[in-house]
Amino acid sequence: MRTRCLKCGESHRNSDCPIKEKIANPICINCNKTGHMANWNQCEEFPKRKPKKGETIHNRNTIKEPEINKPSKPVAPNLSFAAALSGAPSKNNIPGTSAPPKKPFTTNEKNNENCFGFNNAISELRRFFLDYPFLLEMGRQFKNAKDEERIDIFYQNLVNNYNRKA
Q1: Region annotation Disordered: residue ranges (predicted)?
Q2: In this structure, are residues 98 and 90 in contact, taking their beta carbons and an 8 Å threshold?
């Protein structure tokens, strides 16, 4: 097979062609149509890749996992992985849970006695909002109110709830 220039179609390499500038309206040397050169892969005469003998058309190596519709077991929050694998019956009557530890993990018992603690703070806040439920509604009203309206909402709730207690 002899080499032909893509620009002019002569028997020399494309790099050796005397035409050095860009061609405004190129002519294809394969199909003789204007508008594209011979190396354009959309040309109808462009050589198509032929599949080799024994070449696979599609990839057969994709892994298709079978869909398994097993009913899932409910999650047991107190069941450890080791306890689930051991197969030993748990001490609790509730199936799927492990026995609670005998002594809770504490680093310094003196620190725990003096420290207020996060759980205690949450329980105090819960008790506070249970004693004064109007505060939650007042907070919702504050969210949509402007500066001067906030003072009115505060005094209005204060007076209304003072009258309820009296």
Answers
A1: 50-110
A2: yes
Q: How far apart are CA 14 and CA 8, in angstroms?
A: 9
Containing H/E element for 141? helix 134-144
User: Distance of CA 90 to CAs 31, 61, 125, 149, Å?
Assistant: 82, 45, 36, 59
Kindly state the DSSP code that residue 137 receives in the 8-state scheme.
Answer: H
Which residue reads 């620190």 in tokens? 111
* Residue type present at position 72: S
Rounded Cα–Cα distance for residues 24 and 124 (Å)? 83
Global model pTM greater than 0.85: no
d(CA 68, CA 132): 52
Q: Quote the CA–CA distance of 82 and 99 in Å, as a whole number.
A: 13
Each residue of 116-131: pLDDT tens digit?
Answer: 688 888 888 888 888 8
What are the E-state strand segments in the chain?
Answer: none
Contact between 33 and 23 under an 8 Å Cβ cutoff? The reply is no
